[in-house]
Amino acid sequence: MHPIVKPALRRGWRDLNTVQFGMAPAHAIVLGPVDTATGSFLDLLNGTRGLPLLREEARAMGLPDGHVDALLDRLARSGLLDDATGGGPAVETLRKKKGVLDRLRPDLASLSLVAPEPGEGMKRLAARRSLRVQVRGAGRVGAVLASLLAGAGVGEVDVRDSGCVEPWDVAPGGVPAESVGERREEAARRAVRRAAPQRPPRTSSGGEELGLSLVILAPRDGLAVHAPDPVAAEPLITSGTPHLYAGVVEATGVVGPLVLPGDTGCAGCLDRSRADRDPTWPRLVAQWRSTRSRHVPACDLALAAGVAAMAASHALAFLDGALPATSGARWETSAPGFHWHAKPVWPHPACACAAAEKGKKGERPSEEGEPHETMAGQQPYAARLSGNWRAHV
Questions:
Q1: Residue ranges of the domains in the chain?
Q2: Burial label, 366 (beta-carbon count in 10 A; 0-12, 13-18, 19+)
Q3: Can you spell out the DSSP letters for 16-74?
Q4: Is 377 a residue whose pLDDT tops 70?
Q5: With DSSP H G I counted as helix, E B as strand and the rest as coil, what are the percentages for the chain, rounded to 5?
Q6: Which fold, 130-392?
Q7: Integer Cα distance of 6 and 278 in angstroms
Q8: Residue ranges with strand state E in 106-211
Q9: Between vectors from CA 35 to CA 29 and to CA 36, what angle results, nearest 5°?
Q10: Per-residue pLDDT at 366
């Protein structure tokens, strides 16, 4: 082990004996008391020295035996310590690809803040290279979203769509202007390849959903994200494939829900819950689906980019082993205020996905309730991550 104080956190002394690591409250840590010699020793924790050399230098600075190990243990328990070496074969392979790693260093720095264990950030970054994600939709949201995932180090990002690129599909970071008239699918896949630090070997699977870590449904038609068709998601539910919805409908951005089949609310649950609250809902949806709009959708670039970025962030959090706020919830924002708010998608007892069977008996909160507020006696989603869903990441 070559210890290093996490370089992503800036250091500042609050007084002569108290040091603060980090500026932003979400990840900042205050450590004290820290004597002058220990404060100087912190500068040696830069990843260039192993433990034997660090112990020698500590003795030369007058620090007592055992002080280095106690300090490192304290830093590790505080989530401030990283490891510049080790991590296993996948990590070593990534370290040897200097050009790739240099592209991903900002992502690595971010991962080091959310992964408290030494070396865990590098392990998660290396693990991304073995993941397979499919994005269904190559419009202003889908193509940019797919490029973001590829640029963040996800190993295989496939894009599916039909038709040809229209002028209004063009977006910075997505499908370029020179692709107008080409097949959307191929144009988006080229954008993904351009964004990726390096294209890894392609892996094959035995089926459409088998082997996919995540499917992201980012339809160009806003109706398909406002009122997602439960029938279209049935293969994903049957195969147990996690899937996330993202898109823009009439200048409203939507991200979520992240559906964990059999565990969280799905498109069918959403549809049934809406029908329970509004008896006219099925009639409206039937009319919307039977007639296609001939107009260019209200999906401005800034809103589309914001939706793509938020969806990519939630997807990466899930792929890295966390459970983001879109699990069992839709996040929406609308022009001109652009205030993001959450609407829970609770498992419906009549839905064939059977997610409601996992909940205990209790009164469901209203739609305006907190998305991660659990029903009486129900185990929080995050507590179950090491069970069913660890296999997908």
A1: 3-83, 89-127, 130-392
A2: exposed
A3: TTEEEE-SSTTT-EEE----HHHHHHGGG-BSS--HHHHHHHHHHTTPPTTHHHHHHHH
A4: no
A5: 40, 15, 45
A6: Rossmann fold (3.40.50)
A7: 52
A8: 132-136, 156-160
A9: 110
A10: 40
Tell me: pLDDT of 87 over 90: no
- Phi and psi at residue 223, in whole multiples of 5°? -60, -35
Give dist(CA 49, CA 253) in Å, integer. Answer: 49
Q: Rounded to an integer, what distance in angstroms lies between the CA atom of residue 374 and that of residue 328?
A: 11
Q: CB neighbours of 376 closer than 8 A, spacing ≥ 6? A: 360, 361, 362, 363
Neighbours of 387 (CB within 10 A): 10
Place of tokens 């990590």: 91
**Using CA atoms, how far apart are residues 146 and 218, in angstroms rounded to an integer?**
10
Convert the pLDDT of each residue in 127-178 to its tens digit. 999 999 999 999 999 999 999 999 999 999 999 999 999 999 999 999 999 9
Instruction: Write out the DSSP string of 314-369.
Output: HHHHHHTT---TTBTEEEEEETTT---EEEE-PPPTT-TT-GGGGSPS-PPPPTTS
Residue 177 to residues 36, 172, 296, Cα–Cα distance (Å): 59, 9, 17
Which CATH number describes the domain made up of 3-83? Answer: 3.90.930
The pLDDT tens digits of the residues spanning 188-207 come to: 999 999 999 986 545 444 45
The mean pLDDT value of the chain amounts to: 88
Tell me, rounded to whole angstroms, the distance of Cα 112 from its chain centroid.
Answer: 15
pLDDT tens digits, one per residue of 222-269: 999 999 999 999 999 999 999 999 999 999 999 999 999 999 999 999
372 vs 133: CA distance, rounded Å: 25
